[in-house]
Amino acid sequence: MTQEVQFGENGIREMARGFPKTVRDNLEKCRSAAIAGVAAYNRPGSRFRTAEYLVMISIAWIALFHAIFYRRHRLPWFRRKTSGTGVRYIKVDGEPKYWDLSECLKQYYSSRNPPERKNLEFLLGLRNKIEHRHLPELDASLYGECQAALMNLEKILVEEFGRRYALTDQLAIALQFSQSNPAEKKRVAQVLASEAAKTVKEYIEQFRGNLPSTVLNSTKYSFNVFLVPRVVNRKNAADVAVQFVNVDEASEEELNRLEKLNVLIREKHIPIANLDLFNPSQVVKKMEDRLPFQVNMATHTDAWKHFKVRPPTKDSQPERTRSEYCIYDGVHRDYVYTQAWVEKLVSELSTEDGYENVIGRKPRVK
Which end of the chain is more exposed for a tag (fewer CB within 10 A), N or C? Predict the structure, then answer.
């Protein structure tokens, strides 16, 4: 029998004598796949790094879930429905068919839908979309979700099996040559406007657009950071060049300082290449075509006010929008809206109760 002991600042449970072989093998596979994924993503000159990373991080997550299920004495295999009392498993080439990532998510989270689960569902769908396409230009826009998947993996790995299985000591922040220049961004926009990128782009925008703000803004769904140099006047104080701050544990003074920095440098989710954007009249027309109720410009105004997708008229900071739904056009000094916003309106206003909840009055049937 194995024995468990308690130690560590958070009282994380670790095994004193190790785990069964099936658990150890999957833990080794999990860690190796995660490290290989990071290596592929950070490799200089790599084209379409996200595709390579998605394959390896998916393998890492599957192995982690399998290790958890084996430790809980659950066989992560697909069962075959039978009329009798016995249990039969689906087999492929004579071997049991193991739960894939989608099934593992269902088994592990059940009816819960935390940001960590939505992050993996997004990456899983993205992997299926791009596995037969060559779209390296998507890499930069997906960094946040890729980073969050890695950090979530380590968090659960440590919580379930102890700090000795952490990846922290074997991973480092990748070095960067420079920021992308405007000419490069323009070229990327042109590539993303192509027919080959259309379905992938639509998938990304709609998935992000349908997430509640609490999930979209969670670092467990997407982890976007900016680096701030640390200046020290003592040699021994220069232990790390970059520091991650846990906002839940930071002091009020530290939070105020970070908020000021965040105003200066703000990374936001934006629709890729700002394509397929609509003015308010076009949004209303799309609503008219798909909703059973009468709608007009006032309906749209009430909706964006309800969901707070943009600031009020003449606000001093008009660019502060929920950019998965709305973008401020500085050239024309007006707002344009995404396909995700159209889908959200159609979903929210399709019933009488939903319409009244958002708009504040009962709808009129056409």
Answer: N
